[in-house]
Amino acid sequence: KKGNIGRQIYRVILYAFLYSFGAVASFAAVVLFFGTIGYIRTKTLYDEANAEYVNVVSRNQTKAAASVSGDGAKDAGEEQNGSAGLSKNSVSSDASASGNGAGGGGQSVDTRSVDEIQVDIKALQQVNPDVVGWIYFEDGLISYPILFSGDNEKYLKRNYKGNYMASGSIFLEATSARDFSDLYTQIYGHNMRDLTMFGKLRYYKSRPDYYKSHGYFHIITADHDYRYQIFCCKQVITDSEVYTVIHKNTPGLAAFANMYLVPGSVINVPVDIKEGDHILALSTCVNDYAYRMIVCGVRVNDTPVVIPAPTEPAAGDQATQEIPADQGTADQGPVVVDTPMPVGNV
Q: Which of 37, 72, 170, 180 could link 144 by a cystine bridge, Cβ 3.0 to 4.6 Å?
């Protein structure tokens, strides 16, 4: 009898284990399934946004590349925008630096392939007025709209249309100026496992030479195309001083950078930060909740966006012809305009 009781207890324990294992496995499968669906939805949404609002024209072109000290000058060879509402700039697809870095002088000839970026910010703002710009890395690996709401929680789990999405959005620090006029501030994005959003920033930390071919990014607004050179990557605690905002016309940027940004960086880029420069810290999460990772860039170019004056339609154009009285719209019902609907440990 004791043997039978022992076997029965063994069977009960075995069945309980198998049941628990099956339940855990089923739960994990469900989580994996919905996680994968979420990744696909994120990638699809932002692939479509890039296709609709961003135009990148690749071509081979020789250009003179000059490093600038953040005073609003631009490299020789850059182009100003000639289309209404579109930002234009010629950028290198291989971002290893020529010239002497931010704040440095000198000029060299760059014969690498360059891209011309065009982003229709005005159209994006019709979808969601919280869109304040677009972040674009010169290799195209990171390319997303930037949101600003004055609230660091709103876009943690919402996409750029305002709809729920676990990957959230790329968004500007709540206490910042929405026009990127601050001397130093932060942009946040989730470190997604599928490398979307700011997931690829991890490579600046894990691959020592990664920055040599991925050294520049752009912040494109309706009025400006700002180009930044990456000079810093480091892991910091969540309440670090690096999460300070230095507003326009505030002294002390150079001292701040030399005290809090440059020391401990895994990237060794010789830059000369000056008063009046502009620095952006791209911030994302790591596996430890107590820490974050930042990748910092200093502004080296500011290309104004030129919006040409509207032209008058030529006489006789269809747009100027009068509609005959018997062809009016009074009895045709309302006109329907098809417009986009407005809409982390990851």
A: 170
DSSP 295-338: EEEEEEEEEEPP-PPPPPPPTT-GGGSPPPGGG-STTS-PPP--
d(CA 266, CA 263): 9
Handedness of CA 25, 30, 31, 35 (dihedral sign): positive
Helix (H, G, I), strand (E, B) or coil at 48: helix
Q: Is 279 helix (H, G, I), strand (E, B) or coil?
A: strand
3-state secondary structure of 224: strand
Both tokens of 278, joined, read: 């502009």
User: Could you tell me what percentage of the chain is helix, strand and coil, using 3-state DSSP and rounding each to the nearest 5?
Assistant: 25, 25, 45
Segment 100-158, tens digit of pLDDT: 333 333 323 333 444 668 899 999 999 999 999 999 999 889 999 999 999 999 999 99
Q: How many CA atoms lie within 13 A of 152 on its CB side?
A: 12
Specify the pLDDT at position 110: 34
Rounded Cα gap, residues 107 and 99, in angstroms: 5
d(CA 298, CA 281): 9
Among 337, 346, 314, 302, residue whose Cα is nearest residue 68: 302
What CATH class does 57-304 carry?
Answer: mainly beta
Below-70 pLDDT ranges, the chain = 1-9, 12, 20-35, 57-116, 306-346
Q: How far is the C-alpha of 171 from the C-alpha of 169, rounded, in Å?
A: 6
* C-alpha of 111 from chain center: 27
Q: Where are the domains of the chain?
A: 57-304
C-alpha 252, offset from chain centre: 27
pLDDT, one tens digit per residue, over 208-219 is 799 999 999 999
Number of CB atoms found within 10 A of residue 200's CB: 19
User: Which pTM value belongs to this model?
Assistant: 0.69
